[in-house]
């Protein structure tokens, strides 16, 4: 997981300043669920997503095999509460992190289950340490081309206005279709619509570090209304 809190405060202040001066507002008509619109024309994205609501979970574990055995046993209970596991990962740079990407078929049941005392007890028995990081997200854009890059990553950050950020993101693809990363999914927070998450692929293991130092990239993020430094995980796919 990559975090750089020294940069965050200045980053947020500058983003807020630029946004306040720009006077731009998000387009409320952008992002009609399940329907194509002109904003995606000329980009490798569709709004016809396979999974609507999803949950990405990151938690620290003592022993992966012990945790995975408990996770597998809980499958019928999860599915009863509208949670279907799609992928299980470990963090490439921190093997104590287990990461799960799920489809949420019933949001209220899923939230009740995730916050239940029974699950907390089960996780403790499975060797989970500390609280889970939960990302309740709604899929907004899906990549229409084959993802061929070798390193999968998850990234999440805050924006002032999702529609404004998405417009800038899609316009950047129209202006520069050839790029050195592939975004498989773009997601918006279910309760916090200023939360943006994405799963993307790169070939360069140091891609994120290089982007941190790229002034052009940072300027684009600021202009799009990004107001937090991203939390990033490098994903190693595991058998499910």
How would you concisely characterize the structure shown here?
The protein has 240 residues and is an alpha+beta fold.
Computed CA radius of gyration, to the nearest angstrom: 18 Å
Largest sheet: 8 strands, antiparallel, barrel
- By CATH reckoning, the class of the largest domain would read Alpha Beta
Poorly predicted sequence stretches spanning 5 or more consecutive residues: 2-32
Report the portion of residues in β strands.
25-35%
User: How does the helix and strand content classify structurally?
Assistant: alpha+beta
Question: What is the chain-wise order of helices and strands?
Answer: HEEHHEEHHEEHEEHHE
Q: State mean pLDDT (0 to 100 scale).
A: 86
From the 3D structure, determine the CATH topology of the largest domain: Alpha-Beta Plaits
Please tally the β strands and state the result. Answer: 9
Question: What proportion of the residues is helical, as a percent range?
Answer: 25-40%
First-last Cα distance:
21 Å
User: How many independent structural domains?
Assistant: 2
Which architecture of the largest domain per CATH?
A: 2-Layer Sandwich
Helix count, DSSP H or I runs of 4 or more residues = 8
């Amino acid at each position: 997981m990559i975090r750089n809190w020294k940069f965050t405060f200045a980053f947020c202040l500058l983003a807020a300043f630029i946004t306040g001066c720009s006077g731009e507002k998000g387009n409320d008509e952008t992002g009609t669920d399940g329907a194509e619109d002109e904003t995606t024309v000329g980009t490798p994205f569709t709004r016809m997503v396979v999974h609507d609501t999803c949950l990405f979970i990151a938690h620290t574990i003592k022993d992966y095999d012990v945790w995975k055995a408990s996770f597998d046993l809980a499958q019928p209970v999860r599915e009863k509460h509208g949670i279907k596991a799609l992928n299980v990962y470990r963090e490439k740079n921190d093997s104590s992190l287990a990461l799960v990407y799920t489809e949420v078929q019933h949001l209220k049941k899923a939230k009740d289950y995730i916050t239940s005392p029974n699950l907390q007890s089960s996780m403790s028995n499975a060797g989970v340490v500390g609280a889970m990081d939960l990302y309740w997200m709604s899929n907004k854009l899906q990549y229409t081309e084959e993802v061929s890059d070798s390193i999968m990553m998850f990234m999440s950050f805050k924006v002032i206005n999702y529609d404004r950020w998405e417009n800038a993101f899609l316009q950047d693809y129209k202006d520069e279709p050839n790029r050195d990363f592939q975004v498989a999914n773009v997601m918006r927070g279910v309760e916090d619509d200023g939360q943006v998450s994405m799963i993307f692929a790169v070939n360069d293991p140091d891609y994120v570090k290089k982007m941190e130092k790229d002034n052009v990239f940072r300027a684009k993020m600021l202009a799009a209304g990004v107001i937090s430094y991203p939390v990033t995980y490098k994903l190693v796919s595991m058998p499910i």
